[in-house]
Design goal:
The protein is an all-beta fold. Helices cover about 0% and strands about 60% of the residues. It has no helices and 7 strands. It is globular and about 30 Å long.
């Protein structure tokens, strides 16, 4: 697993998570300040995937609860999480 996080100019938080292994992994990330967005109490966003069958395709929704983000990471894929 390799992870990079940054903030876009528009304020969105982005996580790029690369799973180079063969197996699907469920990962849990602690995010500082992620649950203070305008929704009050939790951050929301989208999950995108790039792999053999997806090219930055939206595959689900992201939700941060109590500062924690849980995400499923299929083997040999890049998962992009964009939080508002």
């Amino acid at each position: 697993m390799k992870t990079t996080a940054f903030r876009n100019r528009n304020g969105q938080r982005v996580l790029e998570i690369l799973n180079t292994g063969e197996d699907t992994v469920r990962a849990d990330y602690a995010l500082r300040g992620a649950d203070t967005s305008a929704g009050g109490g939790e951050a929301r966003g989208a999950v995108y995937r790039t792999d053999d069958t997806h090219a930055l395709s939206r595959v689900g929704a992201a939700r941060v609860r109590d500062g924690r983000l849980a995400v499923e990471l299929p083997g040999r894929s890049l998962t992009t999480v964009v939080l508002r």
